[in-house]
Amino acid sequence: MSAKDGLVRSHRFLAVNTALPFVRGDQETIDRIEAFLRDEKLSVDIFASRSGRQGQTVMALDRTQPALVAGQRVTVDVVVRNKGVGHTFPGGTNDSNEGWLEFSVLDEEGSVLAVSGWVGDNGHLDPMAHVFKSLLLDKGGNPIQRRNAQDIHTTVFANVIAPGTADIAHYEFVVPRELAGRTLTLTARLLWRKFDRHYTEFAFRANREGFKRFDDVPDLPITEIAADEVRLSVASTAPASNSLVTDSDSSQWVRYNDYGIGLLLEDDTRGAARAFAAVVRLQPGRIDGPLNLAKTAARDGNLEAAYEYLRQAEAIAAGDPQAAWVWGVVLQEDGRYDAAVSAYRRVLEVFPGDRAAWRNLGRTYYLSQQYEDALAALDEVLRIDPEDRISHYHRMLCYRALGLEQQAARAAAAYEVYAIDESAQEITRSYRQRNPGANLMAQKIRTHRLTISQ
Questions:
Q1: How many CA atoms lie within 13 A of 304 on its CB side?
Q2: Structural domain boundaries of the chain?
Q3: Contact, 394 vs 363, CB < 8 A?
């Protein structure tokens, strides 16, 4: 009855689940999902390298073409950017999702000399791979591998990429002296498998009826979402000159900006500042460069520099709400609370559901002893997220300052409910000691060390 002209609109919802159509033999849906995944959702960029212990970082490797030096240790930085997912990549059931980077070093004949992120004959992923997922444990320190969400107790790591941001994987290896005069190819592929092998094995053994097309645990589809490749020559000695090729193509600014964002998330403020300075050079009329330099200076506590960069951003785009957020952070840190309040109010004019702006506004009102206004702002946070423990904590402080001990006690109790379980740290610490790959992914800076085979 709902058909118009004999047609009913499709109710297909393309996302990332290639497992279910694979189990039912629906290749058409798998093809549609894979096309969706590859359609400008994420990007991979083998972007930067540095040689030796104190080597200078060279960016935009495909354009600057620095030579690798035989016998030297080199670190290659691969940037993965969330361009168009709209939420974190990955999202949803990240205890069973599995995204990862495969990074390879190949010789001139295409033979693989080293690889990170391989899948073994048993279907399990390289335990030292750079992964995009969550690793969760139960109270006994056992990994959550059966979608048993009710047993989740603590998180070892959760590596996801927020919209518009980037993640960096660092790959380190020594270039063999025997390769002098040759060319190496570096490749990076962002791969996706809807369920990791542990969960696939569990599901197969627990529900053979649902897998009746298969005699054994099936190998779920692995989708290449994005990839990059760079070819670099190997020199026998380091060049006498330290001069580097300077990128002059203004369209390349996004790559430098992504790299800077990834470094800033790692707290590498010096590296981030170099990348953002290149953004300013390539795109002096955009706000991105000076605004990100202001964020970097603020992270370092250099408020004078942060103010200077913010004034540059203001000259380009006055009243920009994203710049207003940074103004608020810097002014709050500087103790200029009334001005910080105005900045956060500007953010909320454009983004009224921004819980971070409401939270910082509440904190700023508290610091300026405007407790009633602080409570009103913090209530807005809790309206968005009732489990925001920081807001419960500041509500407790406000009520105590107002002498309202009963309300303060209720806020303190709520804070305790959502407080971090410090005892769980021992469980994660023990697990990380036994699992070096998990320990690596739990770090802010993840350097994967490879050995070149001959």
A1: 0
A2: 43-244+433-449, 250-421
A3: yes
For residue range 198-226, list pLDDT tens digits in order.
Answer: 999 999 999 998 898 999 999 999 999 99
Six token digits for residue 11: 């109710």
Query: In the block, which residue shows the tokens 């359609």?
Result: 39
Could you confirm whether domain 250-421 is CATH 1.25.40.10? yes
Q: How many CA atoms lie within 13 A of 402 on its CB side?
A: 18
Query: What is the tens place of the pLDDT at every residue in 228-264?
Result: 999 999 999 887 655 555 678 899 999 999 999 999 9
Return the structure tokens found at 432: 């990380």
Query: Which distant-in-sequence residues (6+ apart) come within 8 Å of 261 by Cβ?
Result: 165, 166, 272, 292
For 51, the token pair is 């040689």
Q: Class of the 43-244+433-449 domain?
A: mainly beta
